[in-house]
Amino acid sequence: MSTRDRIVTAAAGVIRDRGLARATTKEIALAAGLSEAALYKHFRDKTDIFLAVLGERGPTTLVALLGGLPGRVGAEPVADVLREVVLAAVDFYEHGFPMAGSLFSDPALFAAHRARLRERDSGPQVPLAALAAYLEAERELGRVRADADPAAGAALLLGAAFQRAFLGNFTDPGDPEAFAATLVDTLTAGLRP
């Protein structure tokens, strides 16, 4: 395992246990069996490490799935694709909540995180845009109603997945497959031409 991989793996554990705001680079270095200076040879700061944890140690299905949506336009039933997106989003958000929750309690850390997302042209708007573009392409093919709003459809699906992950911290939200099926069936009833 490379030094960088050791850092990301150690950081994932520390951030899950302590939350991002309370995790320190010193603790991450200790968990990785490295000096704190070694972290800075691979990452600019804790935000950079956190983004690596989300992207490399979290569920990568959502990122890959969204990246492949253009190739699926017109090829598969819209509802099938949307169910798959919802399941991947639920998994991604459930994984990220415990780590990212404390981010909002530290204004300086949150500001740094937002700045880094802007630098990378990343953030929560990216999945929304990708899903909206997919729905727009399906609308252009006539497989989604002409008067449907693709951005609203994307927001409804991903917002519901996000809320389900949030509620999962307080209650048992039930079977994710059933949730995805019901959500998509409800939305697509209004999207069908």
UniProtKB/TrEMBL annotation:
Pfam families in the record: TetR_N
The keyword Transcription appears for this protein: yes
Annotated GO MF terms: DNA-binding transcription factor activity; transcription cis-regulatory region binding
Keyword Transcription: yes
Protein's recorded name: AcrR family transcriptional regulator
Sequence ranges assigned to domain HTH tetR-type in this UniProt record: 1-61
DNA-binding region in chain numbering: 24-43
Keywords: DNA-binding, Transcription, Transcription regulation
Entries under PROSITE patterns matching the protein: HTH_TETR_1, HTH_TETR_2
